[in-house]
């Protein structure tokens, strides 16, 4: 499960790190982080997709949120028994009575 999360987080961190550094032209002397390359990349993607380049970051953000939801659902499904046990324990702790066992 750690590998799944690492393989999911690494590309997101790399892309969004590049995006915000190049958007603000914080290039540290690297052409890769320049605003000119940022604009060129999104202009090329916009031409390939046939959409306005300014809409691409919003579309990517929506895709990242959706992917996050899918990864969270996958993790919750794999750990559903532990989550159910935790919820039962919380219910017992706060209500003071024993909750019925759901199998």
TrEMBL record:
Q: Which Pfam families does this entry report, sorted A to Z?
A: DUF6105
Write out the transmembrane intervals. 54-77
Q: Which keywords, in A-to-Z order, does the entry hold? A: Membrane, Transmembrane, Transmembrane helix
Domain of life the protein comes from: Bacteria
- Protein name, UniProt field: Uncharacterized protein
Organism of origin: Neomesorhizobium albiziae
């Amino acid at each position: 499960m750690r590998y799944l999360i690492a393989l999911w987080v690494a590309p997101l961190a790399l892309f969004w790190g590049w995006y915000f550094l190049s958007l603000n032209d914080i290039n540290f002397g690297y052409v890769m982080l320049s605003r000119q390359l940022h604009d060129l990349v999104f202009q090329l993607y916009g031409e390939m997709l046939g959409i306005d380049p300014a809409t691409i970051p919003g579309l990517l953000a929506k895709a990242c949120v959706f992917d996050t939801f899918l990864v969270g659902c996958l993790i919750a499904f794999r750990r559903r028994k532990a989550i159910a046990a935790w919820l039962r324990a919380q219910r017992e702790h706060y209500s003071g009575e024993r909750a019925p066992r759901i199998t």
